[in-house]
Amino acid sequence: MTTTSDRPVETTTNTTTGTAGTGRATSSALHHEAAEGRVDVAWLSTHLLGRWADLRASARATAGESAFHKIEGQSKEEHRERVLEQCRALAAKGQVHLAFPERLGGGNNPGANLAGFEELVAADPSLQIKAGVQWGLFASAILHLGVEEQQDRLLPAAMDLSVPGAFAMTETGHGSDVAAVATTATYDPETQEFDLHTPFRAAWKDYLGNAAVHATAATVFAQLITRGVNHGVHCFYVPIREVAADGTAGAFLPGIGGEDDGQKGGLNGVDNGRLHFDHVRVPRADLLSRYGAVAEDGTYSSSIDSPGRRFFTMLGSLVQGRVSLDGAASNASKIGLQIAVTYANQRRQFAGPGTDEVVIMDYGTHLRRLLPRVAETYATHFAHDRLLDLFHSVFSGEQDTPETREDLETTAAALKATSTRFALDTLQETREACGGAGFLTENRITSLHADMDVYATFEGDNTVLLQLVGKRLLSDYARAMKGITPGGMARYVVEKAADAAMHRTPLRRAAQALADSGSVRRAAGHLREEETQRALLTERVDAMVEEVALALRPAQKADPVKAAEIFNQHQVALVDAAKAHADLLRWEAFTQALAGIEDEGTRAVLTTVRDLFGLTLVERNLAWYLINGRISSQRARTVTSYIDRLLVRLRPHAQDLVDAWGFGPEHLRAKIASGAEAERQDEARAYYRALRASGDAPVSEKSQKKAAKRA
Amino acid sequence: MTTTSDRPVETTTNTTTGTAGTGRATSSALHHEAAEGRVDVAWLSTHLLGRWADLRASARATAGESAFHKIEGQSKEEHRERVLEQCRALAAKGQVHLAFPERLGGGNNPGANLAGFEELVAADPSLQIKAGVQWGLFASAILHLGVEEQQDRLLPAAMDLSVPGAFAMTETGHGSDVAAVATTATYDPETQEFDLHTPFRAAWKDYLGNAAVHATAATVFAQLITRGVNHGVHCFYVPIREVAADGTAGAFLPGIGGEDDGQKGGLNGVDNGRLHFDHVRVPRADLLSRYGAVAEDGTYSSSIDSPGRRFFTMLGSLVQGRVSLDGAASNASKIGLQIAVTYANQRRQFAGPGTDEVVIMDYGTHLRRLLPRVAETYATHFAHDRLLDLFHSVFSGEQDTPETREDLETTAAALKATSTRFALDTLQETREACGGAGFLTENRITSLHADMDVYATFEGDNTVLLQLVGKRLLSDYARAMKGITPGGMARYVVEKAADAAMHRTPLRRAAQALADSGSVRRAAGHLREEETQRALLTERVDAMVEEVALALRPAQKADPVKAAEIFNQHQVALVDAAKAHADLLRWEAFTQALAGIEDEGTRAVLTTVRDLFGLTLVERNLAWYLINGRISSQRARTVTSYIDRLLVRLRPHAQDLVDAWGFGPEHLRAKIASGAEAERQDEARAYYRALRASGDAPVSEKSQKKAAKRA
């Protein structure tokens, strides 16, 4: 233990946000059994800035400037113009150019770039997404899919925003299934141009940021057809609007049409729209040709022979969107939780056993709704750090192999799908935890929820992403199986049978129950062990994947209709396995991160937070553990009560844990988390204290009646 | 079986909404094992209109008129004025006067009134809530808390909206704990007036609909103090703003101040605001004096002697808000699901085994995310019907007893808390199920979600309401225990011990597992039995309540601090018991309603829907059933696979089940559910068919490579 653990809880002031945690230790009504240790908030919040701490801190400072903040209640037209101006300011700062080549004025630092980019969500998610469209998609497509000549020719204007661009991949008819987009680009050797065409309404490009108003060019994805052969989806650079003298977007160029997507559930600072093409001619040179080129005579060539692998390589080069959404979602959860916990530590409701009303953070229901989410947010944070490392090592070229790319894509899919859903649930829960006040826009959470909503379905629909993860798990499993010799396979089958017998029969459960009997404390202690949590989480993933793999086996020999049916029957189980995998990833990242927490007191508290996360996962899937004989019902009974104990022990650290995320009032921008509630509560209590002291306080009818009865 | 069950599925057309279910039977890729029976959509949608069918149908028709629709993207100022005008139109129609006395032009029909009122949510939730504030709260306070003279004097202007009013109960500092509001009304016998006063900032009235702009009067709740005694919270009629010549609201009257709550997460057509009072004089006659009056000399009198019972009687008279929110939430879930299911039956994505892409409703994941919600919505609907009956029988005076009132309040609390949360989850799930299209405001769901959000915390915070239900369950339990003689008690304790031994020991589970072994089908059949479902759901409530009751016993003899701590430790368990109770209520209502479904084919399908609901509840709480020995792990394994079978059997009825709710395109107002998607898909498929037939289709590089390999 360092000395930090000896500091009394009461005197700690909030060093980072200025939102005084007045309520933190004033809960006279309830005794807390504090977790050992003490969070060093200043140290932890610096530590959490991570690998590119300076750049992240600077981006966070930018997000705190009022010029970049969302103005609530603006019309979408005003909001769109404001966000465009903000993007221009970002371009001027150069903050958004970090990922681009140094020869073009960039920083060649993809990891740092994303670290900064995901901080923008605290200013305005519309700004994050509009910037994401411009630099993360439009310009990135030029960077990753274009050759050096094209980069040199097209990137500077994309980088400095003199050409705002749309990323025209999705169509009304095809979102998740990008390989099936219907827009065609047919090569015409006569003119050495591609004929870009939208064959029917469902093939209109749709939901494209920048497309409704601001874009003057687009990177358009279409089926490349030359010499009668469709070579699959490729990307083309296409000017789409006239550029006025002042550089702003004018009318559509000939052959191009479009539509405004109009009002949306959120992100109304982004001008999403539709585009369609009527035999638009695109010069041969504007096929972004890094992975596929067409010669003058129409001969197609590519460095990647397999059309499937080529397609996934092209798409994979744009994985950064998913990575950054994971980080942004994690930040949104933090903001919601910091608001709700700060308010709950100041707000009082219902009389306690003394004269004061109870601080609502002390209620059992409130601890349950907020603290496990704080724990899960830490897991999400640390998992994102690992993802960012992986992303940087691939995209900086440090470790760019097919294997690391595949790992990156799978991890990004698993974490993006998990953290965006978690952010929405968390924002909803925190909004409700703040009662009616949570519904007011001045308290931020509803606005953030509305903006984050679409994160669950863009850059890869979460359900589709989880299937992608599930398929990777299956192929890893199949690969592992392949290495087994026939003799080994026989042994394996026998072992599995024994495992099922061991885990699923009442016999073993009876034995475990006997071993556990009467010793709730020991059973709980066992659950707190790192190795126990790891074993429970790992075994679950393994068993689920195996179960799906075995169930799908008959599909190999079935006709296509029957095979599709078998796959479909196990789609939910596959998605569940992917979720379990994401849970394990997050738990491992959290556990790994504990080793890097040098301050002992902080580490002690965070270890309890990690345990809370681990046990929350076990509790969430308790039926599975019981059915599959991994936990006896005796022990299962202890999971919930042990979580309850962890909640009480973490209660005194709640404010520290959210403050350590390092967002200040300029990021929270929630009146109820500004200290105003504490002020109101203090004023009210002072009023009643004075009234009681004055002797002028009216008697309550109830106590008068009681007194009358006694007389 | 009637002949309806013999009609082939394919030829049924949608009779109610005109949203052709094109995708319904075209899923060539997947074989469906249809549930027996066939939904008679026209019959069912009429049947579901319920007890006040004509009035509900007429209110629904009103909600379908474009004049009452929300215009998306309006500023809050425009929206507020529009909704006020709509309220005037409703007042002119008289639809909102059904609950008021006939002598004042009302209909004296409280049930019919609510049935109509909750339909307004389909037009614009802001309209529902603004109307709710005016007639359900402000005017209702006069009706229920005032005496006849006050009704005659004050109601007409409230009814015809010549006096828009605020319902000034909640304060910034006290929402859920109404008994503790800090505003005081101190009687002054000198002037025969009350001195209405706000002692500090936390006592400002807050979140009051109509208060920001439109209200010229308010029903204000304050602590009534006379002759030095505080008689608790009472309601006062207080003019708050000048009335301009044209009848609109002018400046605040002297002593009154306020503030606009500003932009909110939704419901921006309602002008919520704050009010405060600086020694405002209220005539003695304007204390709404049905349950408490003050004589000229300041003597207080009430027909209800106990101040506690008086308070709850006054609050109970305003229960209709909760009842109507339950109905409105149910309607919102229906709209979200009808949009998502209709779209899912038309939308196609990813190639199937044939040439067509797969209708997304056919995906296992999609069935899982939508159909159990359809089932739960039916349960919510039928439970609400029962609640409305109960409400009507109490408020029409047919069966107005303390017991029925208590039942009504508990049921309203349980159902409102359940259905509002369910609606939010359902709207979120349906929005995501519609992908990016779901995020566009033109497809409605995000707008509805934003508006419904606050339903979870207003008219009683859901967590607080569930605690109220839990406490009622505890007191029922205590009452039941009281009736037991000491000898009986001893027997009871022994029986309980035996029960625990029976249910919780591995022995019994081993026996059950043995009995079940190998017979998954039989185990599933067992779960489908009505009595099994009832037993599982009922036993769970009973056991949970008892467990909390026993755990709380030590609190009786503990000091207040310790007692509060014990209660707090079991708050979550109490809320969980209340949720289990609400689940049982809804399941019983659904089961009871099946008997009223005369059409056999429809009843057969709805019985399967009920089973899906029942088993979904069992699956959701499977860990509890396992831990408490109610289900063996062998049988538990069959729950999920049996649900999967039910989903496949209900798949062909999905469109019928949502169409039967009877909302038309004028209520859905979602482009993706208008048939446009089917049109786009048909056009795309026709294009590809023609292209294939023409022989001009480009060869894919992949098939070309395959052919080259073969050669």
TrEMBL record, chains A, B:
One of its GO terms (molecular function) is acyl-CoA oxidase activity. It holds the Pfam family Acyl-CoA_dh_N. Keywords: FAD, Fatty acid metabolism, Flavoprotein, Lipid metabolism, Oxidoreductase, Peroxisome. Residues 544-672 form the Acyl-CoA oxidase C-terminal domain. It comes from the Bacteria. Its cofactor is FAD. Residues 55-158 form the Acyl-CoA dehydrogenase/oxidase N-terminal domain. Residues 11-29 have a biased composition (Low complexity). Its main location: other. Residues 1-31 are annotated as: Disordered. The keyword Lipid metabolism applies. This is acyl-CoA oxidase. It comes from Sediminihabitans luteus. The lineage of its organism: Bacteria, Bacillati, Actinomycetota, Actinomycetes, Micrococcales.
